[in-house]
Amino acid sequence: xxxxxxxxxxxxxxxxxxxxxxxxxxxxxxxxxxxxxxxxxxxxxxxxxxxxxxxxxxxxxxxxxxxxxxxxxxxxxxxxxxxxxxxxxxxxxxxxxxxxxxxxxxxxxxxxxxxxxxxxxxxxxxxxxxxxxxxxxxxxxxxxxxxxxxxx
Length: 152
What we know:
The chain has helices spanning about 40-55, 60-70, 70-80, 85-95, 100-105, 110-125, 130-150; strands at about 1-5, 10-15, 25-30, 35-40. With about 150 residues, the protein is of the alpha+beta class. About 55% of the residues lie in helices and about 15% in strands. α2 packs across α3 and α2 (about 60-70) crosses α4. Strands 1-2-3-4 form a 4-stranded antiparallel sheet.
């Protein structure tokens, strides 16, 4: 059985879910390399990402729960990795955070993803600015970038 990876677009081969005491291990074959992720580890990583995005936006768990239409206690359990949310719940949380769902589930973030996060934070910060203010911010960013490039 083949699936296309949501974030990388490459074919992934699902090799199965182990049974018995190892039932929480998921094996995926990618380019001949076997990757094993423990369900609890994945839950922790997703929970950490949710907490990071929530705190960056200066939202309390209660505020995010209200925006996502989820019980506040459940948000806390997800952030601590105690609960593994469904895709639908993750979609609600992403909507509450006003971020794409892929940002929550991309637990193997790379430099590109970190750069994308930075861009997204800048974009969110500029939403309330007037066109003139946006131009001023762009000019400041260009000057800072130029100074940083010259100091290398």
